[in-house]
Amino acid sequence: MVETALAFAVALLSGVLPVLNIEVYLVGAAVAVDSGPLLGTAMAIAAGAGQTLGKLPYYYAGRGTLSMRWMRRKRNDPGRWSERVARWRRSAEARPVWGAGLVALSSFASVPPFMAVCVLAGTVRMNVVVFSVITMVTRTARFLILVLAPGWAMGLLPG
Predict the structure, then answer these.
(1) What does each C-alpha distance from 8 to 16, 42, 157 come to in angstroms?
(2) What is the average pLDDT score of the chain?
(3) Model's pTM, two decimal places?
(4) What is the pLDDT of residues 33-58, one digit of tens each?
(5) What does DSSP assign to residue 102?
(6) Which residues have C-beta within 8 Å of that of residue 83, sequence separation ≥ 6?
(7) Separation CA 71–CA 53 (nearest Å)
(8) Which contacts qualify for 14-18: CB closer than 8 Å, 24 or more apart?
(9) pLDDT tens-digit readout, 133-157
(10) Which residue blocks in the chain are alpha helix, DSSP H?
């Protein structure tokens, strides 16, 4: 239970502060606690929920709800940034599956960087529920692989 609560807290903090790494914490916890599949799954789900909540401020910053100085400066600049945002918004509205796919890919594989994609999702006004569900599912899948991998690897060792 404590491991699950800590996974949520660390994931929430690492979602907001990219210098913290939830992946390192999860692998370390899975090895140190020798978590079975049930505890590992609970930790992955908690970490997925924490990361989803931790990425929402970036989404809302892109949407313009949260005020960040560099975002205001970019938004008020009539140059290339405004043109790009308008082009991205048109593309996202014309092909909503493309936007959802980009969020899913970035959330699962971190390519392109997920923090930037969160801001972009807010900028193009992706539905927040769709963004949150995709983030929760794909981050949880990513973390599930991480917490279960040490047990699988240990089972392959002779012994």
Answers:
(1) 13, 10, 31
(2) 87
(3) 0.84
(4) 876 789 999 999 999 999 999 999 99
(5) H
(6) none
(7) 21
(8) 14/50, 14/51, 14/54, 15/50, 15/51, 15/52, 15/53, 15/54, 15/55, 16/54, 16/57, 18/115
(9) 999 999 999 999 999 887 787 778 7
(10) 2-16, 22-33, 37-63, 69-76, 80-94, 96-109, 114-123, 128-156
